[in-house]
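Quick question, first post here. What does this chain look like in 3D?
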Amino acid sequence: MNIARVARWAGVATVGGLGVGLWWLRRRDGDEVSGPVSAADRLQRTSRVASAGARAGAGYVTMRAKALGADAERRSELEAEFQLRTAEQVAATLGGMKGAMMKLGQMASYLDQGLPEPVRAALADLQSDAPPMAPELVVEVVTSELGAHPEAVFSEWDPIPLAAASIGQVHRARTHDGVDVAVKVQYPGVDRAIAADLENTDLLFQMMSFLFPGLEPAPIVAELHERIVEELDYRIEATHQRTFADHYRNHPFIHVPEVIDSLSTSRILTTELAEGARFSEVLEWSDEERQLAAECLYRFAFGSIYGLRAFNGDPHPGNYLFRPGGRVTFLDFGLCKRFSNAEVRVFERMITAIVLQGDLAAYRRILAEIGILPASFDISDERLAAYFNHFYEFVLADEVLEITPEWSSRSVRAFFDLSGPHAEIMKAANLPPSMVIIQRINLGLFALFGDLGARNNWRRIAEELWPFVDGAPSTPMGAAIAEWEAAAGR
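> Answer (accepted):
Ran it through. Tokens below.
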């Protein structure tokens, strides 16, 4: 961590006020807020917990700043001073930093380039620079889950974590068979912290109602609850990861590490170790390499929906490792959404109507059928197109389109800005639960594309991925993938 990143932590206190800030903005605009007293009490609790977590995080970053100019021995002493040595410490500190509300705040860090840079950077850093568990606490978790000290379970074990994941930290190790692995160890007590946040449904209901006045929040909260609770059971994540690894095995560009089942439990996930450059490094690569990386991310996200009926719902920059030539390793399959054939068929019908046929009447009927807009909602085709075409803009025309940070920010505002020209539609709209997680493609993936300056004929690539079009390969990457598919009998 460099000094600039440390300085950006000045905005970290904003995390604790995330829910309060949304509430205040709506009150400032003259909207009345009503709700049970318990909602206010819970809001106060959440603010206190998040503030405590933010203070702990800020203290950890201050320690890291001091360590920059220290020798190796002093750095070890400073880091040891801040390690979390009991499950109670982990629950208290990481509960504020890593709970369900924090996951929403962390997502905001890469969604909108319009956020103040200190706030975006602080939120992003909070994901990866949490205080680590002390080695002895990690030993307790591994011993409890795998039956022995990690130095006995593995032929080699690095007590210093490689990274902090959303609900656990990752250690490098080697199996007795000589396989280098990444071992994700869940923070003890984080399940209770997230459960407490998810019980705070009144606050979640209010936040969503502020942003989407036409929304029925209960089904959406239920969907978020189900997806986030799944993340706490690493056996579910292992199942997701195996599904993706099986599908993409030997793919020329997409790599998913294999799960080591014998060394995985509900709180330990062991996978093959992957190497590669982080997203921040890729931003310094040549334009050609950045374009290849973006194309691979695009093909993985949308190709998985139609090829696997599944979507890895966390397009966070920390979940990718990049290698030259457009090769990307995909990590962290805790938040996945599987779609039924009927749900995917709805996506296909919507694309056919608005993209391939330009039939707004048919698109309007589909919106009413699935409950996005009431059938009685009176709005002209021109205004309907002005709003919804934005979400398909990158594939509407058969031409090269660059996805800029400004375009990505417009996408976020199209979802959340009630002061804009589409406020009437937004107040009437209701997002079906099955589409909650998939919207993170539009918000998360394209935010990363804005940073990359991603440029391509997305329409032609999409037609390769849409099975109802089955277009010919449009890029060298597409041609190589077509050869792999043919060889695999797909």
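Residues 278-490 form one domain.
The radius of gyration is 23 Å.
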